[in-house]
Each structure stands twice: as C-alpha cells, then as structure tokens.
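Backbone-to-sequence.
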C-alpha cells in the first residue's frame, strides 16, 4: 500500500513541480531567487539544524546521516523510508506607507532512503532549490516627468539528488550528495511615462542547470550508556551553474496592453548568450548533546563566501553581496517513546531559533532573517512511521531605505513512512 501511495505522489510531483509559485517575496528579485529550506519538517522545526541522525528519518541536509538508517530497526534488514513535505507560507509585506498580505502553498520535497546493510545507506529525491515570485512598482521622476517601473518575475530552480552514507569506523560516519540543479528564471520590467501613449518593456529569461556536491562527517561518541555527543561538519561545494539567456525589448500600448514592437537582443554580440556563475561554498559545523531517543539539544554555525557571487545577465544595480552566515539552535524531547498508556508521551516535541545574515546589502542596508520554529511528531499507530507538523514565525528585511519588511508564518506538514524493501530469507 505504501508503495502505491509513493508512486501516486511521484506522478503528481512530475507534473506540478514546475507549476508552483514558491514565493511572493520582493527579495526573490535578487540573485537566483529565494533559497528554499532543504531540510525535512523534523529538521526545520529544530531551527533548521541537521547534525542529528537517527535510524528511521531521512536527513536531507546531512548525507552522513544515511549511515544510521535501519540501525536497531528490524535487525538492520531492508528498511526503506518514504518522506514528503508540503508547506503554506503566509506573508505580510510592509513598507513605509502601505501593507499587503499574500500566501503560497508548495510541495517542499519528495525523497526515499534505503538501509543497504549494516552501517550503509543511500537516498534520492527531488525538491525546489530556489523560487522567484515578485511583483512591485517603482515610481520616480525623469526630467521632471513622473516615471513608473513595474517589475515582475517568476520561476526558480529545482534539484534532484543522490546521497550515500557509511560508518567507516565506530561513531564516525561520512557521506556525500550529488545535486543536479535545473530550471528557468524569468523577469520583466515595464516602463511608462505619465501622459505618454506608449511604454517600453524589457523581458529576460535564463535557462539554468549545473551540479554541486555536499560532503559530511559525523562523529557521535557515547559519553555514557545513556548520553551521546553529536558533532558534524558539512561542506556544500561551489555550485557551477551555466545559463542560456534570452532578452526581448520593445514597446506596448498603455491603453490596450498589446505589444507594438518587439526585438530579440543579440546577446552573442555582448557575450551574454551563455553565461556562467558560481554559488560559493558553504561550510557548516555543529555540536549537540542528548539522551538516545529521549531528548537532544544542539547548535550549528554556517559560513558562506557570498561576496564572490555575481550574475552578469540578471544582476541589478542597487545590491552588493558580502559573506553570509547563519546560527541556529534547536532540539527535541520525547517523554516516553515506548509508552502504551499515553499517546502524548509518545509524541516528539521540537523547537528552535535561527538568525540568518543573508549577505545581501540592498540600498546600503543589510537584509537579515530571524525565525522561531516549533512543532510535533505524531506516531502513526504502533509503527515507525510518523506525521510531523510544524510552524515557523519569522521576519526578514526592513522598512528603512525604501525597502520592504516581510513577516511570515509558515505551516509545515511532513510524512515519514517506514517499510521493508526486501526480506532476507532464513532457513532453519
């Protein structure tokens, strides 16, 4: 039955992944769009930290965690984990004089993980990588005449991945992930001068693809029979992306809205038909402490040399990039995972907090993000499967310097289903 559910989800995903509008944030105007959270719901609800690994959950951000799949479960025989997540994000966008609200609903990830034997696991899946979805108006004067620019954008990048993890010696696991990123970014600027019959447009499109790799090392020594120290180092290597670009400019009728004239710009002459840009390497270190299957508390720090980022085709004038960083803390508690009398005691309660310095400096103002997360894991019967429900409250940006402040509430639902993908035959 589980396999039938997964096949149905895969079919739906194949047709819907491109269609979803992942964001309405004006900050998706910059770079390659909003970076989506690549973690499962159980990770996201702990502030996004990903150093914790267990035997029944996929950890999308830490490939070394695949080495733990199936350990102490069904005698390590043939565990397979299916996981999927959806979210609804409600935005309140506020500038100095006005305020608006909007929301988006997305499929966040669809993945499978396998225990291949003692200390070895693998997984693969698909998820959004970035999202573009903005629409805003800029009004100013040009030689004394009112001038209006309308900016809009859509698209984003998706990602398919393959991961493998292995415990090389006791308490030390290593892992690697190969990511293939692909998608299309589209942007449009409409310009109109007051009382002028015609306006102008500038439409740009980039078809992007490229690879990157994630590497991870986990060290999880037992401090006592009850307590474990969790440490992790992860490196997301530089993403080398290539883009095939198109640009059209022309004029349109202000009253009718139809195009009057349209020209395909010769990008070959400007050496912009095919461009390359790099997503700088990001490094994460984490440390935590906990009692096995009972509670855990940890923190992570991430650093990325974003000052080296540049997109020569879709770049804009009012932004510069500097090195980015993020700090996050989170954990969970499960009062009694083996309780027969109390379902509440078998539930897992998670919470966390994070502060992201995004590295974007717009109009000479740093754009930062702060979020508080919390949620619960709901066991499905007496099986190893569970439903995770989580919430995130956050704020990004500011109303200073003619910018927009985003306040948001994100509701996450994640399903983790556990099954056997083979049974080892035994002969007495």
């Amino acid at each position: 039955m589980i396999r039938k559910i997964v096949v149905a989800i895969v079919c739906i995903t194949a047709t819907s992944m491109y269609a979803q509008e992942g964001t309405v944030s004006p900050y998706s105007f910059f770079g390659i769009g909003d970076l989506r959270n690549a973690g499962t719901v159980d990770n996201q609800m702990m502030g996004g930290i990903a150093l914790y690994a267990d035997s029944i959950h996929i950890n999308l951000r830490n490939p070394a965690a695949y080495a733990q799949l199936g350990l102490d479960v069904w005698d390590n025989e043939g565990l397979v984990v299916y996981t999927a997540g959806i979210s609804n994000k409600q935005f309140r966008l506020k500038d100095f004089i006005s305020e608006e609200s909007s929301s988006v609903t997305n499929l966040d990830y669809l993945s499978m993980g396998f225990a291949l034997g003692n200390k070895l696991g693998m997984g693969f899946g698909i998820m959004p990588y970035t999202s573009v979805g903005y629409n805003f108006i800029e009004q100013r004067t040009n030689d004394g005449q009112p001038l209006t620019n309308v900016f809009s954008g859509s698209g984003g990048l998706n990602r398919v991945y393959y991961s493998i993890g292995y415990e090389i010696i006791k308490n030390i696991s290593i892992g690697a992930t190969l990511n293939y990123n692909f998608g299309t970014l589209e942007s449009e600027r409409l310009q109109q001068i007051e009382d002028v019959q015609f306006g102008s447009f500038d439409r740009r499109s980039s078809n992007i693809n490229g690879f990157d790799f994630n590497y991870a090392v986990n060290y999880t020594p037992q401090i006592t029979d009850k307590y474990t120290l969790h440490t992790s180092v992860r490196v997301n290597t530089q993403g080398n992306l290539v883009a095939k670009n198109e640009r059209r400019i022309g004029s349109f009728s202000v009253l009718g809205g139809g195009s009057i004239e349209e020209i395909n710009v010769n990008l070959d002459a400007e050496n912009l038909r095919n461009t390359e840009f790099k997503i700088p390497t990001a490094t994460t270190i984490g440390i935590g402490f906990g009692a096995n299957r009972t509670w855990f508390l940890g923190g992570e720090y991430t650093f990325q040399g974003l000052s080296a980022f540049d997109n020569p085709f879709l770049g804009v004038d009012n932004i510069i990039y500097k090195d980015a960083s993020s700090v996050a803390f989170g954990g969970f508690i499960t009062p009694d995972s083996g309780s027969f009398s109390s379902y509440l005691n078998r539930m897992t309660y998670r919470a966390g907090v994070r502060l992201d310095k995004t590295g974007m400096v717009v109009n000479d103002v740093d754009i930062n993000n702060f979020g508080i997360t919390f949620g619960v894991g709901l066991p499905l019967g007496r099986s190893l499967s569970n439903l995770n429900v989580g919430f995130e409250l956050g704020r990004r940006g500011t109303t200073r310097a003619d910018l927009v402040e985003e306040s948001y509430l994100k509701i996450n639902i994640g399903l983790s289903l556990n099954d056997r993908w083979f049974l080892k035959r035994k002969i007495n």
